[in-house]
Amino acid sequence: MIPTCPQHFHCELLLYISWLVYLSDHEFTLSRLGEMEEEGLLLASPSSSSSLLSGISNVSTRPFVLAFTVCSCGAFVSGCISGYSAPTQSGIMKDLNLSIADYSLFGSILTVGIILGALICGKLTDLVGRINTMWIINVFFLSGWFSIAFAKLIWMLDMGRLLHGIGIGISAYLGPIYMTEITPRNLRGAVSSCSQLFAIVGSSVFYALGTVVGWRDLAILGTIPFLVIVPLLFFIPESPRWLAKVGRENEVKAVLLSLRGAKSDISNEVQEILDYTQHVKEQEDGDRGFFKLFQRKYAFSLIIGVTLIALPELGGNSGYSYYTDSIFTLTGVSSDFGFITTSLVQMLGGVLGTMLVDVSGRRSLLLVSQAGSFLGCLATAISFFLQENRWWEKGNSILALISVLVYFASYGLAMSSIPWIVASEIYPVDVKGAAGTVCNLTGSISSWVVAYSFNFLLQWSSTGTFLMFAIVSGLGFVFIAKLVPETKGRSLEEIQCLFTDSPLENSTS
Questions:
Q1: How far is the C-alpha of 72 from the C-alpha of 202, rounded, in Å?
Q2: C-alpha to C-alpha distance for 139 and 88, rounded to whole angstroms
Q3: What pLDDT, in 10s, does the model give residues 366-394?
Q4: Burial class for 123, CB neighbours closer than 10 Å (0-12, 13-18, 19+)
Q5: Residues 480, 363: contact at Cβ < 8 Å?
Q6: Shortest CA distance to 476 belongs to which of 425, 421, 430, 410?
Q7: What is the pLDDT of residue 368?
Q8: Mean pLDDT calculated for residue range 30-55
């Protein structure tokens, strides 16, 4: 039997998101999008007068809810993995007699696995499809948890973390891509963000559980979500856009009907997908290789995607996430209290971001998130500076805690999910796999550099470390303000025409 409780929960959550989006139907996107439409470079968007009931029906079909549940549980597992090393650091080091260098390897080898997963994510999902790739990811995740839970030697611990990294490297690309490809345009941001919110929930849950549960037991608890994921994988549909890409056009309409409802009018959406896919194929000119991505017409979208994915990592996310225990210890904050409050604040930031992403738009939330990250890193640097000089000793631990909370709340608001939402929206189907690999690799390498060097940077200069992160966050704010356009309320085909500066002619009328 298919579990009914998760389905009912997600239906309620999605209906609430639909209501929020309906209230924002008459808001405008970024002026650049309006200009592009006036110049005829974009397809005319459908009327914004669609009813609330129509919006609800678009997301309440069983296949859609099951797909959303699987992606949410997968994101939850990724969050659990990311949050695993921070609260378990002292326990693992004590039980297995690890040095700082040994544990730094354990923390950073996750990103080595993510790099390996990033290398194959685009090609794999294009070759075997979105659903088959999900099966492969879950094998990596389960194997990793068991390897860590029963580790007697360091290599078993590292092997489990490496397998987890490979799974995350693939799923970081697959999850947002799959959700954006099956979700209606007016709900795409909220649904994708809500799915990715479960990564924050998973991280927060493991932060909290890690304060009361041993590291081996915590690894066993990480396998529980698969009791939901594995059965539901038999019942979720393939992406209609992937089906169109591989020449299975006859299945596109049937899949969209199952996702939108048997009574929905999907003729325009089907035609748009098929016509744009055909348009892309006609533009290929025999060039189907990986390096097609580096043509001049894709330069702008490549810069946007790569930079947005790398920003949170270079801005210190890996350091904050993996070594929160070290930060709290150095600044005199109770680790247990710090973990719990950090978990709650990050979760609240993610919920707020999910509610606002299709109301205020991607760009506005990214700007607020980057500004908050800058302030959080700067405040952390000031806290360390005060501690090193033994100034304001009574209030310094409070400042350190507030700075970490500001950072995690800001990260949860937008930078945890929106960069991948934007990256999944802006690339045409013919280069999406290659673009996903490049973006994933860039983010993974950035994460690895920060994760591996973080403890050594703290030994060099705690203040200097977080000042560097603050500078990166500040530069990221300027980049988003100057170059990143809004994508809210547009179909994927319209957005891709905008970014490639190649209008789709005569595709739909």
A1: 10
A2: 24
A3: 999 999 999 999 999 998 898 888 888 77
A4: middle
A5: yes
A6: 410
A7: 96
A8: 38
